[in-house]
TrEMBL record:
It comes from the Bacteria. It comes from Lysinibacillus composti. InterPro entries: AAA+_ATPase, ABC_carbohydrate_import_ATPase, ABC_transporter-like_ATP-bd, ABC_transporter-like_CS, P-loop_NTPase. One of its GO terms (molecular function) is ATP hydrolysis activity. This is Sugar ABC transporter ATP-binding protein. CDD domains: ABC_Carb_Monos_I, ABC_Carb_Monos_II. The keyword NADP does not apply. Keywords: ATP-binding, Cell membrane, Membrane, Nucleotide-binding, Repeat, Sugar transport, Translocase, Transport. The keyword Repeat applies. SUPFAM superfamilies: P-loop containing nucleoside triphosphate hydrolases. PANTHER family: CARBOHYDRATE TRANSPORT ATP-BINDING PROTEIN MG119-RELATED, D-ALLOSE IMPORT ATP-BINDING PROTEIN ALSA-RELATED. SMART domains: AAA. Residues 3-239, 251-498 form the ABC transporter domain.
Amino acid sequence: MLLKVSNVNKSFGSKIVLTDNNLEVGKSEIHALVGMNGAGKTTLVRIISGVIDDYEGDIIFEDKNINKLSVIERQNVGIYVVPQHAAIIPEFTVAENIILGTWPKDTLGMVDWKKIYENAEKVLHDYGLDFDPRMKVRDLSLVNQRKLNVVRALFSKAKLVILDEPTTALSSEERDSLFKFIEAQRQQGTSFILISHYLEEILRLCDTITVNRDGRSYTGYKKGEIDEATLSKLIVGESVKLLERSSEEKLKTKKVSLEVNGVSGKGMDNISFTLGRGEVLGVVGFPGSGAREICRALSGLNTISKGQITLNGREFSIPKDPKTAVNQKIIYVSFDRHKEGVVQLLSIKENISMSILTSRLKKMFGFINKTKEIENANEYFKTLAVRASSINESVGNLSGGNQQKVVISKALSALPEVLILDEPTVGIDIKSREEILALIDHLTKERGLSVLYLTNDFNELLRISDRLLFFEDGKLIVDKVNDGLTAEDVMQIRDLKDLKEGVLN
Ligand SMILES: Nc1ncnc2c1ncn2[C@@H]1O[C@H](COP(=O)(O)OP(=O)(O)OP(=O)(O)O)[C@@H](O)[C@H]1O
């Protein structure tokens, strides 16, 4: 046994978060930690790693009680957490990131760069990676950045690596490649705790599963002994019904809402398409294909150099920043809520109101309509079942998934005509994901909201999208109605290199 968590309890003030939590991780084991948003997974990981030190119970590592050890001391015995936003420095090279803080010096006491790069090359090679240690980390793909985070942990002699949602926003190929890498490290003797909301990958990769529900742990489920439906029921406490947008809705011809005509700019080459009123248009493409670029450009986050856009018959002035897009009723929800989503120090209510202070909530003489503000925040708080004591709770105290629900509430409050969702269910649990999809389905049908939906989770994409746009090399290559497509079809179309626009229509 490598790690033993024994009868751990934790409360924040009067809020009880963990009650009698137990789990055991063996050597060379991949252990899953799953549960709904706010179930207490991150709190437990913070206790194991020593970030939270006021808890009841015992943490035993290699047969020693480590309750009294600090974060650094726990790292020194071999416990290393790789959070969702790991502390790699994008402007540094791969080598600098690996050796961060342990700079080798030459005989004159100068940093020995030759040695740094030689060492880094060897380290990467030992872990089966072949990227150049001189590359800036910002130029690495997302999956290679995540692998580098693990390498850093292993370089620091980690015996147990805790990965918090490592596959979010990765394509299925990138996931496979990350899994192979983790599996290879496990075979070398490293143990992993993996937090994830993707049950299929949990069942594929992990040896043992611990479910956290309502603060209690249900542990010891073994690979092969539990199926996805049973696991899903254990996590939520009831069966989860998957939302399926009706095929009738998917095939309905819709009145044009957004018309994009010959748009070019950074990473975009002469893109034209229409988005119907009440339509959900799925957007597919590898990073750099133009898929994310057009979504961000329509929201004022990327520059458009040429082209025309109309929205519900109005001339749409090319947005130079997000504010001009929002004023024209196009709103973008970013996959990166830390950078572009919420303000941690403000309350749920203040975050939700942020986009409508100068419009829907404005009264005369610069006053804010407080009653309306509370009503509006409460509406989304309830519809999206945000797990917090009230709308006055600070967003920084919420679990990751619940923060994401606040980001979506903020966007919907502004009553957009076009909503652009970029990996909107990142970090969202299996039940909340269905609630979000149901809300989108409802708003498109009842309010005529038009949606551009970008995600690497093709099963999710196909359940909600009426039509799909495929991008490559900055161009729109295929525009296809979702008439019963499968995830395999989507991958096949995306991977065909020489398709000309419309060939498959
Ligand atoms: N510093 C804090 N102060 C008050 N409450 C907190 C604090 N940190 C966490 N919580 C609460 O503890 C509960 C568990 O949060 P935690 O982040 O552990 O959940 P999680 O299972 O990791 O969720 P997710 O899947 O959304 O990441 C939540 O209700 C959260 O609001």
